[in-house]
């Protein structure tokens, strides 16, 4: 209340600039295009001339849930798998490595660089690395170890779209898991660096106090260190969710094998592909948006709780 | 002793014991394998790479020709050019959002204005708007601007003029800027709002206006967190594939950044696939240097201040 009346004229101008410029930017570059996508999803636009655009109501959505039902559910589920693996496999591994490295293991700097290296590679490049070094049918590491390099006996890691974990008509296909592995490989380094940064800032006296109380290593981590790193955990959450939902590059550069569709592939394909259909692509986009909204709701709830306390 | 969830705790503890007993070097070796393979292959002839795994390299397969070829102008996309293109995207896409977001974070944290809470929430919510959702309207907007024809009157309002910047690096970094805003503001706000209140109050009493406080007090204190975000954003934009592909794509092959250029190497029916490892290392070189040069800041900055809270 009192605050705003205290603002001088120059202060007010500064404030408009400080807050106004970024607001203009994200309204213009994010909100308006996103809303335009929602509107486009109700049209049959082919993306070239505006006068061919026609309002078609829910037709695109009806098609998604009938004709393209298989693509849609497969993609949704695959996005979910990525999220699950990044959270349940990559994140704990990254945290564990960070924790071990933080205890001044010999050669910390070396290990740190080693685990961090995949993070500086672009996911597009990561895709090629795994394809040629790990999954190559003839000289890839996996087939050589398994002794399956002979012609006809080779395992096609990226080509086998049968389900490893079937869930009704859908599931986790083997080749999609083969694509998740490099994502995990890269994400572990990300998490490790973030966590290492956090661990360095934990007050050592807290650890000592817990050790004197006879806490085990696990209890120390679970009850002292982990809760005190809440800000890092939030950053990690955010980054993991963003990475999982925007996953695209690695699948696209490997030519999107059967069974590896994700939402962003469907969006991009239907608007950039040969038979461009902006309407349907936008409808896919809206579905992607809706699935992300779950996380907004979660975030808003936390944020409001925080603001109320202030 | 009185933890309610003994089940998950038991599992977690077992998992922890199991995993931490694996020697670090074994872990590291597995982790190193793909990168090592890539590195070795980048120095092998085409036939060598195709014929056998990287661990079976023989001396006469050694060559540095791959590195020479990727820089030659007559290959599909010379990496020399695309490295410059990548810089032309990543540098503005890092500096511009940070500068704007630093101001905004201060505004949201310390200037009391009406609707602050809501505007902040709306801003940060963009974190959850996936890029793909906005790409096509953005692309059309870069080509033709944004107009609204009013019904009945038939008058057209122009919100954004037709810039015609599709196919240029400007279109790419502008897009990055818009989408970087929420995370930058979020991260910087975390930090700036945790600065001790007293310094602002005493500065206000001394008659400093908000701009002076920001410029003289907040900015110098925020260097570590700014650097941390800069590293993040630089890596993100340097490694971006999707935006560059959409905004530049085939429209202007001369403006393609390294990620797309390398992906194009792989296309072409695999004729140039043996150049990929060398290309990948060239591509990774810049972010590696950036990371290790600024690592110090990264560690301190990312979480500075927010830990105690």
Structure description:
The complex is a heterodimer of chains A (310) and B (309). Chain A has 310 residues and is an all-alpha fold. Chain A has a domain at 75-263: MetI-like (MetI-like fold). Chain A has helices at 2-6, 9-40, 59-64, 69-102, 108-120, 123-134, 141-146, 174-200, 204-212, 217-228, 230-245, 249-253, 263-272, 278-309; strands at 163-167, 170-173. Mean pLDDT of chain A is 83; it is low at 1-5. Chain B is mostly helical and 309 residues long. Chain B folds into two domains: 1-69, no CATH class; 72-301, MetI-like (MetI-like fold, Orthogonal Bundle). Chain B has 14 helices and two strands, in the order αααααααββααααααα. Chain B has a two-stranded antiparallel sheet with strand order 1-2. In chain B, α8 (169-192) runs antiparallel to α11 (223-238) and α11 runs antiparallel to α14. Chain B is globular. At the A-B interface, α1, α2, α4, α5 and α6 of A face α1, α2, α3, α5 and α6 of B.
Provide a quick synopsis of the model.
The complex is a heterodimer of chains A (310) and B (309). With 310 residues, chain A is mainly α.
Layout of strands and helices, then pairs:
The complex is a heterodimer of chains A (310) and B (309).
Chain A: H1 2-6, H2 9-40, H3 59-64, H4 69-102, H5 108-120, H6 123-134, H7 141-146, E1 163-167, E2 170-173, H8 174-200, H9 204-212, H10 217-228, H11 230-245, H12 249-253, H13 263-272, H14 278-309
Antiparallel strand pairs in A: 1-2
Helix pairs in contact in A: 2-14, 4-8, 4-11, 5-8, 6-8, 8-11, 9-10, 13-14
Chain B: H1 6-20, H2 24-41, H3 46-51, H4 65-71, H5 79-110, H6 116-125, H7 131-144, E1 146-149, E2 156-160, H8 169-192, H9 197-205, H10 210-221, H11 223-238, H12 242-247, H13 258-266, H14 276-301
The CATH superfamily of the largest domain in chain B is known as MetI-like
Q: Any idea of the CATH topology of the largest domain in chain B?
A: MetI-like fold
Instruction: Write out the strand line-up for the largest beta sheet of chain A, numbering strands in chain order.
Output: 1-2
Measured as a percent range, the helix fraction of chain B is 55-70%
Give the total of beta strands of chain B: 2
- N- and C-termini, Cα separation of chain B: 26 Å
Radius of gyration of chain A: 24 Å
């Amino acid at each position: 209340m009192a605050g705003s009346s205290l603002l001088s004229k120059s202060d007010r101008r500064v404030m408009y600039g400080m807050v106004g410029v970024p607001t203009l930017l994200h309204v213009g570059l994010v909100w308006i295009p996103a809303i335009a996508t929602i509107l486009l999803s109700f049209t049959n636009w082919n993306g070239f001339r505006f006068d061919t655009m026609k309002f078609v109501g829910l037709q695109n959505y009806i098609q998604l849930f009938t004709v393209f039902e298989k693509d849609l559910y497969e993609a949704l589920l695959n996005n979910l798998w990525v999220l699950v693996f990044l959270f349940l496999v990559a994140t704990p591994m990254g945290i564990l490595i960070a924790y071990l490295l933080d205890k001044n293991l010999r050669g910390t700097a070396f290990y740190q660089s080693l685990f961090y290296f995949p993070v500086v590679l672009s996911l597009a490049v990561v895709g090629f690395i795994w394809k040629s070094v790990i999954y190559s049918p003839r000289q890839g590491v996996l087939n050589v170890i398994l002794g399956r390099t002979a012609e006809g006996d080779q395992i096609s890691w990226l080509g086998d779209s049968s389900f490893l974990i079937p869930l009704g008509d859908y599931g986790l296909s083997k080749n999609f898991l083969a694509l998740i592995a490099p994502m995990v490989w890269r994400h572990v380094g990300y998490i490790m660096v973030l966590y290492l940064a956090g661990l360095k800032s934990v007050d050592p006296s807290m650890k000592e106090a817990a050790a004197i109380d006879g806490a085990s290593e696990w209890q120390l981590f679970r009850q002292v260190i982990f809760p005190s790193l809440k800000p890092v955990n939030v950053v990690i959450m955010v980054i993991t969710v963003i990475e999982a939902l925007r996953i695209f590059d690695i699948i696209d550069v490997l030519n999107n094998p059967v069974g590896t569709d994700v939402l962003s592939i469907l969006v991009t394909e239907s608007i950039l592909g040969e038979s461009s259909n902006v309407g349907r692509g936008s409808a896919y986009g809206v579905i992607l948006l809706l699935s992300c909204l779950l996380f907004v709701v979660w975030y808003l709830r936390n944020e409001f709780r925080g603001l109320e306390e202030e | 002793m009185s933890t309610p969830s003994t089940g998950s705790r038991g599992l977690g503890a077992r998992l922890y014991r199991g995993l931490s007993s694996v020697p670090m070097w074994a872990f590291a070796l597995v982790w190193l394998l793909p990168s090592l393979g890539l590195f070795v292959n980048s120095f092998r002839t085409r036939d060598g790479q195709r014929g056998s795994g990287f661990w079976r390299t023989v001396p006469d397969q050694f060559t540095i020709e791959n590195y020479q070829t990727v820089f030659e102008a007559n290959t599909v996309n010379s990496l020399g050019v695309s490295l410059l293109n990548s810089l032309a995207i990543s540098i503005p896409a890092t500096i511009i959002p940070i500068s704007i977001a630093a101001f905004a974070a201060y505004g949201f944290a310390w200037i009391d204005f009406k609707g602050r809470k809501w505007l902040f929430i709306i801003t940060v919510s963009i974190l959850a708007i996936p890029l793909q959702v906005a790409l096509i309207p953005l692309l059309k907007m870069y080509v033709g601007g944004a107009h609204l024809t009013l019904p009945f009157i038939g008058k057209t309002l122009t919100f954004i003029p037709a810039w015609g910047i599709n196919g240029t690096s400007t279109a790419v970094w502008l897009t990055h800027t818009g989408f970087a805003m929420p995370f930058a503001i979020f991260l910087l706000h975390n930090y700036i709002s945790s600065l001790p209140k007293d310094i602002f109050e005493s500065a206000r009493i001394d008659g400093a206006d908000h701009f002076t406080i920001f410029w003289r007090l907040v900015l110098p204190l925020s260097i570590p967190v700014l650097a941390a975000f800069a590293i993040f954003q630089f890596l993100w934009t340097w490694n971006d594939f999707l935006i560059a592909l959409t905004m530049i794509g085939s429209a202007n092959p001369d403006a393609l950044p390294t990620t797309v250029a390398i992906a194009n190497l792989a296309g072409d029916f695999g004729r140039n696939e043996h150049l990929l490892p060398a290309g990948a290392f060239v591509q990774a070189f810049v972010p590696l240097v950036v990371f290790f040069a600024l690592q110090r800041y990264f560690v301190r900055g990312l979480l500075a201040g927010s830990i105690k809270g």
